[in-house]
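Lab notebook, bench 4. We co-purified these components, and the gel suggests they stay together. Before we commit to crystallization screens, I want a quick structural picture of the whole thing.
Request: model the full complex, all chains together.
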Amino acid sequence: MDIEKRIQGLRDRLQYIQDIFGAKENANIQLLQSKLNDFLEREQTASQSEKSKQLSALEDLFEFLERKLERDLTPMDKVRIVRHPQRICLKDILENVYDNYTELGGQDEYNIDPSMIIARAYITRRVGGKVYNQPVMVIGQEKGHGQEFRNGGSVKPWGNAKALHYMKVAETENIPIHTYVFTPGAFPIEDNPGAAQQIARNLYEMAGLTVPVITCISEGGSGGAEAIALADHRMMFSHGYYSVISPEGAAAIEGRLRSGERATPELIESCARKLKMTAEDNRVMGYVDQILGEPALGARPNHYDFFKLLRQEVIRATDSVVLNVKGWRFFRAMTLSSRRARKKGKSAEDIYVRWSLSSRAKERLVWRRYQRFRRMSLKAYMDVTPFSERANNVLGELWWDIYSFFKYDFMRKHQKKISGVMEEIGGEIQVVKDKFSAPLEWMRKLAGAGSTEAVVTETEKSLTELSCWDEGSCELGNGSYYVSPQAREDRAVTCPNAATHGCVDLWAPDLFGDFAGVCSTCGHHFRMEYQWYLHNVFDQESIYEFSRNIESGNPLSFDGLDAKLEQAKAKTGKKCACTTFEARIHGVNCVVAMLMADFRGGSVGAAEGEKFIRAAERARKKHYPFIAYVHGTAGIRIQEGVNGVIQMPRCTMAVRRYIEAGGLYLVLYDTNSYAGPVASFLGCSPYQFAVRSANIGFAGRGVIKETTGLDIPPNYHDVHQALSRGHVQGIWDRREIRKNLHQALLTMGGRNLYYR
Amino acid sequence: MIDVKALLEEMKASPFEVVEVRAPHTGIVEFVVSEPGAQVHGTTGVWNEKPGTLLAKLGREHNAKAILAPLKGEVEKVFLEHSGRFVEAGTTLFTLRHYLTKDEVISAILKKTLHLFHAPEQAKYYFTPEIDTKVKASGCKCVRVREGMDLFIVSRMKRETPLAYAGPEGLIYAVYFQHNESVAAGEPLIGVCPEELLPVIQEVVNRVQGEWEER
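Here is the predicted assembly.
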């Protein structure tokens, strides 16, 4: 019986190896196959002891060759490892790493979302003869070993909502959170609460969680991973991947495949390599702090040593995050980080660290988390700002710090006193002024000059010039008139609603010139260029662009991206897809970050993220409202890999910091806005509005079809649907944006806003 | 009595409907489909999101508007003499042969043979409770209706009034309205068939189901 079990074990191991290496020819695998076959042939005739001996030799050979094959693993092989049904999953970790646990929010298929598991677990450690039970909240995606109902770890929006709920519970209970990322990506459906919007909410809340969050990444697929991965310490399993998109998805985009077409294995393999998605790549780039070495060819449920290592490292990471923000830590912190202690076999469990935090420590924790993410991906873009301008910027920021301190902090605190003193001084000055100006006034009266002249001119003006009979009707908008290139063509345009609404054909110069691209019958909004908004929304000549020297780069040296970027730069005259500027709307100052669809589809990479963060910081320093105008965004720029994905937490944290400082953050969508940005720094805004032409969603039709097999109705991403799902707060007519934005600034400003 | 068999023979003699595709407005025609006999399809998809076959383009003020096939079928005739020319609105550009499907044949026969009772106004219609129970329990064909019988409840904005049936006595053969859905004025509500005609109609329907070849 024992021998049969061992034979089956070897068969499974061989099958696993064949699955991992796919169709690739490998002499080592063939050798294993032939050796196993030889043994099976001879098995019938051999005696029991002989069989056992041969099996031991065969097992040694398997072990040796597995280690050898380990060196041949390509990034795509690692993708196959994490997708394999034998890969360790969260349930294995809960069983083997934690001392006890209770699953929350449902069990197995009786669950809000079986692909997201929440468990209240505890870790027991015995230090100095005393036993400590330390509770943690464990959150993570569960792929299960071939359990269909787990949906492959692809979490539905309500699964992420459940995760968020228990994160808040952990925060209330002041216990650390351990998250395990095992997802190929979020399930792309817009049903309430919405894939994108829920991830955005998760990110926003995680940015301010006041308990330590430790993350282990096995399979980190883009937005789905980010929903639980904004952490103080990120670990990654050595055979895992963390990427902006699956290699197949990248291949479909790179190969410009139509729906139904399949990418070649070579193209997928090369995309996996180019995306730099392995643990080592991510550690080099600084997106994970630590790699956990797995056994050869990846950890499986019977690798108990790996679970032991994982337990040690998870405890050590939690300890070090806690100690970093605590006051009392001296020797413990030293021991934790000491390599000598580790070599001596001193484990993290031998030291006791209380995991609950004081209120001061909580503040430090959140601040350190912000700084950690702020420092990421700084090398992934180009900044060609000359030294003089940089120095100028630093001085300018310093000035704004001082100015806003006096204006908003000092003045507000001492407002009554200061205004009292100022009134007194003013009164005194008035008396002195009157005394000195009395002779002058007397002389002016003698000379006969008076203020009547001014009155006469004003009366004359009012009598001779045309009056302004309606408020705002004399306003010429921006003064400089923008003519859309679409309006220069002599042609008629048919409204897509003509069949149902009976719209008449419109002449392009009328439609795109006078009607602002709006059908005069049904109100359908045709797409307009971002320049139209710059000219028609903001006050005349009030736009002042900043951070203009930040330029999109090619951090992963992705083939062909340089040429595409050059093309986009030449076409738009911009250096990246994000333009940040200060402007005024009816005299109200604001900071605006604009994503342009014309530059690589408005995709967000490191440069765009950095500009967005700088804009949020500027708005915070200057105490201006912050508007994100999304002319269009296709998502994260996949060619930048994790450098792009990391902008999701980075920008969200900047936005949160701004909102918590009392700022008003407003998002306005136009044309198409999808994926990463909507699932993070845009979707987290409490005030999101959309122009009638907008489509908002997480994934496009093709991706939904490919990943879920579902056909979606044509108006699935339509802004009206987004409104009915509660993802946007209102739909604006393009012609009323200026008025509506101004009203929004006034009505949503509230008392804690200080933009005036 | 209507001779339903003759009706069926008549339909078999010409198993298609000829549809004219006309220019929706004035413009210069550019034919895309120019060969008679070409197979075309109408709008398809769960939400009618996939447009029909592009037949021609009609250009007016540099705006080429697509003329699409309205139904599935075969191009019978292409009026190529208009190619590249300016045409008036309503000019016939194509004739299509749309081969009738089983459902279309059956509904055409039924519409001719049954007595249709139409909705007098736009409202939601329900059967009265006792009729409703009968329909649900043993199907509509067991319900006998006669002149003046209280058959429907007309519901407009929750104000409900009874509606009496008017027409010849018979059995309800077809129900054309859906529960909880608004019916426009003039749309048929039920089709009533005299009891003696029922076996004949049933036979014709069965024959159509069995024999009619869809193309």
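Chain B touches chain A at residues 46-47, 49, 60-63, 65 (CB under 8 Å). Worth comparing against the SEC data before the next meeting. The longest strand of chain B covers residues 92-99.
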